[in-house]
Amino acid sequence: MSYQHILVLTGAGISAESGIPVFRAEDGLWENHRVEDVATPDGFVRNPQLVHDFYNTMRRSVKEKQPNPAHLALTKLQTELEKQGGTVTIVTQNIDDLHEKAKSHNVIHMHGELNSILCERCGKSYEWHEDCDGTTVCKFCGHKTMRPDIVWFGEIPYHMEAIEREIQKCDLFMAIGTSGVVYPAAGFVSYCSHQGKPCLEFNLTPSANSGVFTQSYLGKAGTTLPAFVDYLLTHGTWPDPSEL
Ligand code: APR
């Protein structure tokens, strides 16, 4: 295998075939809500119950969802590369747990997780699988000051130092199912590309920053990714799209 340290960035598109809707629908709404209402700190101050309801509904719905062949292909790549002494790190913008359900590890959730809640008073977060609202008591400080553990617009993504280390270390970068419009994630490809690393994109259509990628594999990730992983594991290098 020509590559020892693969960095994978995933976005909503990798979970689309599992039945979880992507964010940037044509109408600009998320599940019939304005982004400003359900994904900003101001929205939470204005109407905490609406925001809790939104994420409670999503948490319940995602519980039923299963990983698709794209998630499973990443697990296969990780398992096989690790046998050869390599690593696959998955940085996801997704708040679902489908990489974990697919038994991947080394998963970094840069935009938080549905299955976690955060105390606004003491700043601690912890795993949570039930509904959460203004009556939920923080298990650490005892106050009713819990919010979804989601990085909203205007907030700083999690684990940026660890992600920067992975960007330096990797020798291949792959972006899967992400529109390339939300920073800092959308900028990772430029860092890797400036360092001369091959950057591969998997998307239905070219993303906003498609021009920075070395190669684009257009189509459903549930189809392109398993074929890509099999090729990479067999030949040790990435294929021309026509070979998939
Ligand atoms: N296979 C591959 N790509 C797909 C598929 C599929 N089956 N279905 C959709 N896509 C692509 C779309 O073409 C689009 O480019 O996935 C992308 C999804 O884009 P977004 O909805 O913008 O999701 P994402 O890039 O993850 O959003 C980034 O923005 O709203 C915030 O915090 C939120 O994490 C999110 C971030």
Structural class: alpha/beta
Query: How would you name the CATH homologous superfamily of the largest domain?
Result: TPP-binding domain
Unreliable stretches (pLDDT < 50, length at least 5) are none
Q: Count the helices. How many? A: 9
CATH topology of the largest domain: Rossmann fold
* Termini gap: 18 Å
| β-strand number | 9
What portion of the residues fall into strands of 2 or more residues?
15-25%
CATH class of the largest domain: Alpha Beta
CATH architecture of the largest domain: 3-Layer(aba) Sandwich
Helix fraction by DSSP (H/I, runs of at least 4): 25-40%
H/E topology pattern? EHHHHHEHEEEEHEHEEH
Mean pLDDT across every amino acid position: 96
Q: What hetero molecules are in the model?
A: adenosine-5-diphosphoribose
Tell me the count of domains.
Answer: 2
Rough outline:
elongated
The main sheet orders its strands as 3-2-1-7-8-9
Radius of gyration: 18 Å
Q: Give the quaternary arrangement of the chains.
A: single chain
